[in-house]
Design goal:
It contains 5 helices and 13 strands. It is α+β, with helices and mostly antiparallel strands and about 220 residues long. The protein folds into 2 domains: about 90 residues, Ribosomal Protein L25, Chain P; about 100 residues, Ribosomal protein L25, C-terminal domain (RNA Polymerase Alpha Subunit, Chain A, domain 2), CATH 2.170.120.20.
Length: about 220
């Protein structure tokens, strides 16, 4: 668990106008759903949510909400942001128990790019998936999946089957999907330039062709 606890209150009034009034009071409207209790409109202190977001351990992590001393594990499922200010304007929280198996997107990060021969030779790291959808217990959600690029050369293709996932975690998508590749952009460009500069097979150089033209009388 990320160690984040958010205080929540039930919203007695719903609707667009009431949501705006909630935000004017420096509160964040939201919905708590999942489990047997059904959906409940809630409001949270905006300052607490902003602090949680800055921690980097809020979205897609198991956190707790506190309602008058009663705590409940939840996972933030969706956050809407204002298009101009980029401040959160609505949040959805999903109730879970710690051993509940959930489907969640876990971010992918890459390390040791300087130790990749392919990147050293001008290759480009092409990230196909910035997150990996996993099915994992809520109390064992990894913060990230780290990929080591040491020794990865041009033509490198990383499939999910080669990723060392945490114990008990399984891919939520079928098939051996691709996470990243290393493409040789610079090398391909050099080969294309060299091919364009070389004469076509069987063609005589321009100077030789000129010499072979018959003299005009």
């Amino acid at each position: 668990m990320a160690g984040i606890v958010l205080n929540v209150e039930r919203r007695e009034k719903t609707g667009t106008g009431n949501a705006r009034a909630t935000r004017r009071g420096e509160l964040l409207p939201g919905v708590l759903y999942g489990g047997e209790r059904g959906s409940v409109p809630i409001e949270l202190k905006l300052t607490e949510v902003l602090t949680a977001l800055r921690s980097g351990k809020f979205v897609s992590h198991l956190v707790e909400i506190d309602h008058k001393g009663e705590r409940q594990p939840v996972i933030p499922r969706a956050i809407q942001y204002h298009p101009v200010s980029e401040r959160p304007i609505h949040i959805d929280l999903f109730r879970v128990e710690e051993n509940t198996v959930v489907t969640i997107d876990v971010p992918v990060h890459f390390k040791n790019q300087e130790a990749s021969p392919g990147i050293k030779r001008g290759g480009a790291l092409n990230i196909v998936r910035h997150t990996i959808p996993l099915r994992v217990k809520a109390n064992a959600i990894p913060e990230e999946i780290v990929i080591d690029l040491t020794g990865a050369d041009i033509g490198y293709v990383l499939h999910i089957s080669a990723v060392d996932l945490p114990y008990g975690a399984k891919p939520a998508l079928a098939g051996d999907f691709t996470i990243a590749t290393i493409a040789g952009r610079q090398a391909e460009a050099e080969e294309t330039t060299a091919a364009a500069a070389a004469p076509a097979e069987g063609a005589a150089p321009a100077a030789d062709a000129a010499k072979k033209e018959p003299e005009k009388k």
